[in-house]
């Protein structure tokens, strides 16, 4: 039985607590939160689980094998480092850390102490996203050309981070999982509209050497909730709409074929458009966070790196950090 302690019972903590409590072979043993009302809520929902107000007290508990961290971004490094130094396995809510240097330091420390370090890139475990990965691997889409993502809604405005570090983390982690080729540069632009301290509307472009291009629009001030991603392939094109209750993934047999004959002029380039059927593939609809909890537990038992381990966490934080630098440089392209 793997005994787990959770730090943070605010917005995301209750979801993590519920899933770890329901994971076979895992015991949710302790929850820490500085706020009395959150500790009271944890005690009501998880009777028998020890609650405390100090994260350090939880990390120091000898009986715990692992620590799950669901606290603001700026606390991730200190809490994760303290837990790893005590030989505990660690799962951190996204993103892994607030800087690439801190993310790399955590990865190196976890490797040195031989403990599992995992980041909660929840959408990587989403059944629809895993089905898209299977379609890519099968060659069904053909050569990938572009990714275009929109994730907007009204709120939740964060006090300690801008919209890129909050919302774009999801889509960058999806891109990192789906696209094997590594990006070479990032550019970003955004605004802190309506008098807010942090950017709440932003556009991020991720550049690749092979011509593939990824673009992300994130926005806390939209009147509607949109979570849509387009993935264009040379053979087929795909739409992933996370808000669609029935057909989250749609594959379109549409594309453009260009025939440029040797020595011919531009006017003699032949362009043909293909329009075929659309189909909506089935996928596993199990809660993604349940698979996150299971993967963390399995990686501990099997002494192997988790799917979204330190390497994935570092890559996503590097993209976020580059986007932040580009914002401050008025959209300048930042090499990775």
Mean pLDDT over the residues: 94
Give the N-to-C terminal Cα separation: 41 Å
How many structural domains does the protein architecture include?
A: 2
The largest sheet is:
9 strands, mixed
Helix/strand structural class: alpha/beta
Level-2 CATH architecture of the largest domain: 2-Layer Sandwich
How big is the Rg? 22 Å
Number of strands: 15
What level of helicity do the residues show? 25-40%
Morphology: globular
User: Going by CATH, what is the homologous superfamily of the largest domain?
Assistant: Dihydrodipicolinate Reductase, domain 2
CATH topology value of the largest domain: Dihydrodipicolinate Reductase, domain 2
Q: Largest beta sheet: what is the strand line-up?
A: 14-13-12-11-7-10-9-8-15
The SSE string, one letter per element, is: EHEHEHEHEHEHEHEEEEEEEHHE
Count helical runs.
9
CATH class of the largest domain, named Alpha Beta
Beta content:
25-35%
Could you name the ranges where pLDDT drops below 50 across 5 or more consecutive residues? none
